[in-house]
Amino acid sequence: MLNTDFLRKSLCWVAAILCSAALPLQAQAGGRFALLIGNQTYETAGVLSNPGNDTALLAQSFGAMGFEVEVLIDATQDTLGDAIDRLSERYGTADTVAVYYSGHGLQKDGRNFMVPVDARITSAASIERETISMDSLIEVLKPFPISMIFLDACRDNPFAANLQGGTSATKSVAQSRGLAVMRAEGDMLITYATLPNTTASDGMGNNSPFAAALAHHIRTPDTEISVLMKRVTGDVVAETNGVQRPQQISQMQTEFYFKRTPSPDVTIDPLRTLLAVYPQQVTAGEEVSVVADVPPSCTPFFTNFAPDGKLTPIPLKFFNSIPLSNGQIRYEISPGSRFGLAIQEEDPHGTHKLGLLCEPAGVGNDQNAVRTVIAAVAERVNAGELTGFVSAGSHDPIEYSFESFTVR
Description:
The chain is built from nine helices and 21 strands. With 408 residues, it is an alpha+beta fold. It starts with 21 loop residues before the first strand and ends with a strand. 43% of the residues are buried. GO terms for molecular function: cysteine-type endopeptidase activity.
């Protein structure tokens, strides 16, 4: 079972995720497509900590929101260029396209460039030859009805030492920080992980502050993207103590929602339960992280359904709890928490389902209702219905929310 007795310092992603090939994650596309790029292991610029983790985490969130997802890890110039070329083939079939880039980026003469892992930059003149221009990406995205670019690439210039000598133009590139301001084209949103001309954090944990916040808030239902990105900004500012502040440049004229409730006749409760469980795959010795935002009227009961049918409750005392400005309470277990959810050698391999039942007041004193609710939730979750409501007899329906992860 999940061991909650001790902490692990870090969470390692399954090695299969960190490969250089494109990994198509199929979902019910519905005209939505996301290209997620994580350049981590550079041939001449060292290794970044989290791009592989960040793209894997975001793949789960975009996939859950109905996007067909393509993941590129450690993309070379040819691989990255081919992926951008393939975007143009989706004209007429995709109405919403998102591109996330995590890795090194450079600016030169007010233009931005994504740096492939095989780039060999020795002079200012070599930048355009060895990298992929963000201008070319914008040109490809411009014709789509809705497009979004998320840039988590504002790290320090890894080639600065190579560029210190030579001409004044070369020195200027070496001294530049972060990315330059770009102009959004068409119905487009461009989001920087931090302000232009400043640098962003790769993250002290398993994900960058920007990727973690974006992955979490993408799942927020019935929230227009301009509002959603304000919440992402708030989380990043809080996480970095004000050092890092994301910025959006938008030409969007169309309201966009990652998730809408099915019926417009249903009154939306703005304080719905939100859950994130990651990573998607773990092995013995690694940890599972949980973040759940619940309404103040709910007492969450966290549990894990193992593939062998065993239920393991996770006591609330193992969670950090944080009141949020919108009235919700955030419950969180991560490698930085007091306790961790570490996978043990004896844990059954296969698909686990971890989540919570949001218990209204009074049900806890009705043991028959509790047993009925847990049995009903287990039946639905094992049937693939990971979120919803179940009847609690004479009590109000109980909301539940679960996510899957695999022990290998």
